[in-house]
Structure formats: C-alpha cells, structure tokens
C-alpha cells in the first residue's frame, strides 16, 4: 500500500512541551519582573507540560488520516503542529504542501466589515493572491449559501453563517493538505453533510486529509488509517477499524473502572441514608426529578444490604459489551421472619425510561419463608442493550406493593457497542434483500 | 532577525489588505469618516496653541508662529505614539488568530504602524495648507516654505522603521507582560515632554537638562522634522546618518527580540 506513494507529513519522535512562563499561572507583569527576578529569568520557561512525547508517523499523499484519543491526549496539539501554528519542542516534523486548517473557522474575520471583504482578507491570509480570491469569490459565496448577506458586516451574521463562510473559504483555497478539527459539529445538518461531501470529494481528488475527531462514526466513515494517542504518546497506528476497536475497548475499561468506584460510593451513601420513609414519595417506581440521584425508601421490614453487578465470569464489573451476560446480585436480610415478600428489579435509562422491570412474583415465584440473610441473583444471559449508561432499581416489597426497602439507582452500568445503531435496544438482527437491490458487506 | 523582516516583505499583500481593513473598519459607520483622524490632532493643536500663546506667552521668535511650529512636530509625534500603543496591543488583541490560524505574527505590529501612518499621511495636506497660509503671513511672521519639503518622504521612512522596530519589541514584550500597555501610556507622556516637539533643543540654555535631553534617540528625528517642515532648512549628511543609524538599530533590536520570542506567542498570548 505504501509503495509508489510519497509521504506528505512525516513526524519523527515529535515532542511538544508547553512552557509556562513566570510563577503565576496566568501571566506575569513587567513590574514584578523588575522588582523580583531578572527580566531574562522571567522570560525563560519555569514550568512545562508534556503534551506530546515521541510521536512518529507518516501520512501518505492522498490518504485520509485520522487521529483519535481521549481529551487531553494531545490531538489538538498534534493538529496545530501539522498546521504549522506550533513548533515541536523536539523531534522532526516535515509537511510538504500547502496546508489549510479547519481549526477555528472564520478566526480572522473582522466584525465591522462586510462578508465579501472578509473573504478576500481571509483568502490572502491563507496564501492566495487578491486576484485568485476574487475569482473564487462567487463559488465561495454560493457554497456558504450567503448570497443575500455577503455585503452585510459580519457582525450581523449568525454563528452558523459565520462558520459556513469560514469553511467555504478554507476549502476553496485548494490546499494539498486539509487539516480538520472538530468543526463539522457546528452548522445545521444539511451543511455538515455538505462539509463531509466536500471532504470526501477532496479525498477523491487525491488530496491528503488530516482529521481529528471525537465522532468515531465519522472517523470510521472517512479515514484510511488512524493514529491513536494516549496521554501524548502513540498507543497505536494502523487500520481504522482495528484502532477504533482498541480505543472503544479502552474507553469501556476506563468507564467500567470509574463506575466501579462510583458504585462503592453510592452503596456507602445509601447505607448511610436511613430508610425512614415508609412509603415512596410517589407511586413506585417514583419518577424522581433527577434519576441520577439515588433514593431509598421503605418500612425496613427487610433491608437490602448490598447489591452488585457481575459479568459472565462471575467477577464484579460495571461496564459491559452489548450482548454480554449480566448478573445482578442482591444481599438482603429481614428484620423479622417474613412470608410475604417479593424481590423486584427495574432497569432505566438516564432519562428515566423503563427498559425492563420484573420481580419474583411476575416471573412466577411465590414467597416461602424469609428468615435470615440471603443472596438473590438475577441473571440476564444476553443483554442486548444499545451503547449508553443504565440505572438499576432494586426493591423488596410485599405482594400488595408495600415497600420494605426500595433502592433507586442502586447500581449504574455502562454498555459499549461496536455498532452505530441507535436506541437502547440493540437486538441481534439480519438483513436480506431480494429483487433489484443488491447490498454488499462494507 | 533577517527572516522576520523578509517575512514582512513576503506578506506585503496581507499587510496591505489588513491595513485597508483597519481603516475601513475604523471609518465605517461614522458620518465624519476620515475627518475624525484630523479632528484629534487639530483639537490637540488648538489646545497647545491656546495654552502656549495665550496662557504662557513670551516665547522666542525662533518658534513663531507657534501654532504652525507645534503642528509640524505634533503630527509626527502622534504617529509615533499611536503606532506604539496599537503595536504593543496588536498581538494580544489578535490572540485567536495566532492561536488558531497559521498567521505570521510580525504582520500585526506592522499593520498597526502602517494604519497609523496612513492617518498621518491623510493629515499631511492639512499641514501643508497651514504652512502655505503661514507662508502668506496669516499667522504673523511668514513661514519659509522651500524645497526642503522634499526631505519629508525620507523622514517618513526613517520614522516608520524606528517605530516598527520599537513596535515589534513592545508587541513581543506585551505578550509576556500584560502591564506593558499601562506602563507605555505613562512612558509615552514622559517621552513626549522629553522630546523636542513643543520646543527646540537649540533654544534651550546649555546645561545638564539639555545634555540629558539630547541623548533622547528620537531628538535628532524631531529636530529634522522641524527643519524640513517649519524652518525650510536642509538636513546635513551627518544628521541623516545619525537618524538612520538610530532607526536601523531600533529595527534590528526589535526584530531580533521579536524573533527570539515568536515561537512562544501561540502558547502565551
């Protein structure tokens, strides 16, 4: 694949260290520089933050190259280095060709003068001559859809119009390398579609695109290869699907860890909260104004002492893939021997939509005797949920519905999905097409 | 340093459109338009003229008619002062540009100096009119209007280079020290009285004060402005050499300082 094609961006052990000047975090004053340390000392960096470290990669001509990573992984820094805005602190970075950066669209616009004049200035800023930009002007105006407003001062534009005009100029300067940041999220649906089409068309014309995004779907759609950054270092570099899968896995693992920590905290909070209220604030399951906040009520004839989620391997976890088995384990103890009791479980989205609700009675169990600490397990062999987070309500109540102990949001877990499908149900599915339409596997 | 200056030449088209934008944005929406740029120096002139001819009269005949004399020094000074103020703030004001776009930073102080230079140029015809009226004896003693006026473009160029150099220095400094702007305002008003704008050094009594004031790097420049505009005298080669040396030194130091710090701008601005 690399044979016969040349590299337009080459990074060799690139590092970027952000320097902080002066002791104060903001900015120093000349007065303090003269009164305190010497001027030279005040101008020399006193502190530094390593944003990128030992990053090496090459981008081929005509390739769409994606960069992914969590916030603070150094994506934006890398983008600015490639765009030439920043200089690497160490290593070598060479970029061959004219770069146009879609980082902050319309950053150079002056509010007081007309859109037309701003386009000319912006074009010159991006390296065109006046004549070239004037020739391209009608195309730019049409692309941005601002024919009626182009002679108005830019300060009268909406933010969408502003961005559209900025994007139009940036893509019309005909760069060899287009550097795209998280800019496509702005503007309406139609316009972002048109931006994507423009980028795709760029790519079709053999131009190189350097793409940074959190929108993994877009990365998957557009990119040939992906660089995965983690805390300023290269975590992986390779084929798009592979890198995205690795990234998603890491995100899920991180999310799982976070939720496990949170789970412990929630459990402690709930244990501390006395279930003095005999009845729920409203009918159960009470639509609480903030479903994020755990609630507990009941007359404490029986109490839930702990609840946790287990994976298919029997280990406690709070992050699952769609289709995994989940076991909910409830530990409970009665205050006095009971023969009227039901164990119930409810599954909710953060928007408080009930995904599933069941209890031992609904599922055909009659209460026998409950006279000592017990462990109740509910196993769901295939949880076909869509990506997102979910809350679990756990309850013990009488057959008539009198709550003994009702825990709202007792557990919270996260589902990761490799599919881009929508909604909270992600069923197993298959397509078949007959007749004049044909589909092929992507 | 030479790279920085070469970049300025390379980006002259950009500088051109930005200066035009600056002027357009300033005059847009104001009825008086470019007359605003005249009104300010004219008002200042009127105040100084009233103060020094009516309130404190008794000046030597060397600077008479005083109003015209003042005008000849005030306009170049205003260019210097307003350019430095704008240039010092230019990088900080246009921070987003430096942070988010590949933008040649040295262009910004240059645009500040040149836009203010245009205001100066626009005021020159008014100065010329004042000189001609003065020559006709309208303000008292006739002002000699001679061919010495052809020295004006050279003075413009040399002052421009000096201001650009100092402007680059101040702009870079302001990025790291935000109080430069405030200090500059004070420094400029001190500097104004330390510069032969309201007076000439030659009419001062010899002494320590004159000794000190003659070390002011722009003193030769302003003496030259007075000679070229007001006295209609030719400036000797020795003086040209001094003025040129000061301007080029300022430019060299300013550009070198700016070049040293320029990589830090996108992060620190």
SSE inventory with pairings:
The complex is a heterodimer of chains A (442) and B (269).
Chain A: E1 7-21, H1 30-35, H2 39-43, E2 45-60, E3 64-68, H3 75-83, E4 90-95, E5 99-102, H4 115-125, H5 130-144, H6 159-172, E6 177-180, H7 189-204, E7 208-212, H8 216-222, E8 225-230, E9 233-239, H9 240-272, E10 295-297, E11 302-310, E12 319-321, E13 326-334, E14 342-348, E15 354-359, E16 374-380, E17 388-397, E18 403-416
Parallel strand pairs in A: 3-7, 3-8, 5-6, 6-7, 12-18
Antiparallel strand pairs in A: 1-2, 1-4, 8-9, 10-18, 11-13, 13-16, 14-15, 14-17, 17-18
Chain B: H1 2-10, H2 12-27, H3 35-55, H4 66-93, H5 95-100, H6 107-135, H7 152-176, H8 180-194, H9 208-213, H10 219-231, H11 237-261, H12 265-268
Helix pairs in contact in B: 1-11, 2-6, 3-4, 4-6, 4-7, 4-8, 4-10, 6-7, 7-10, 7-11
Rg for CA atoms of chain B: 19 Å
N/C terminus separation of chain A: 19 Å
**What is the strand tally of chain B?**
0
Instruction: Note the overall shape of chain A.
Output: elongated
Helix count from the secondary structure assignment of chain B? 12
Sheet bearing the most strands of chain B, described? none
Give me the CATH fold name of the domain at 294-416 in chain A: Coagulation Factor XIII, Chain A, domain 1
Number of helix segments of chain A? Answer: 9
Stretches of chain A where pLDDT falls below 50 for ≥5 residues? 279-292
User: Quick check: average pLDDT of chain B?
Assistant: 87
**Based on CA inertia axes, which overall geometry of chain B fits?**
globular
What is the mean predicted local confidence, pLDDT of chain A?
82
Please explain how this structure is put together.
The complex is a heterodimer of chains A (442) and B (269). Chain A has helices spanning 30-35, 39-43, 75-83, 115-125, 130-144, 159-172, 189-204, 216-222, 240-272; strands at residues 7-21, 45-60, 64-68, 90-95, 99-102, 177-180, 208-212, 225-230, 233-239, 295-297, 302-310, 319-321, 326-334, 342-348, 354-359, 374-380, 388-397, 403-416. In chain A, helix 4 (115-125) crosses helix 6 (159-172). With 442 residues, chain A is α/β, with parallel strands linked by helices. Chain B is an all-alpha fold and 269 residues long. Chain B has one domain. Chain B is globular. The A-B interface holds A 18-19, 21-22, 27-31, 33, 42-43, 80, 83-87, 99, 101, 103-104, 107-108, 110, 112-113, 117, 120-121, 124-125, 129-130, 153 and B 13-14, 17-18, 21, 24-25, 28-29, 96-103, 173, 176-180, 183, 261, 263-264, 266-268.
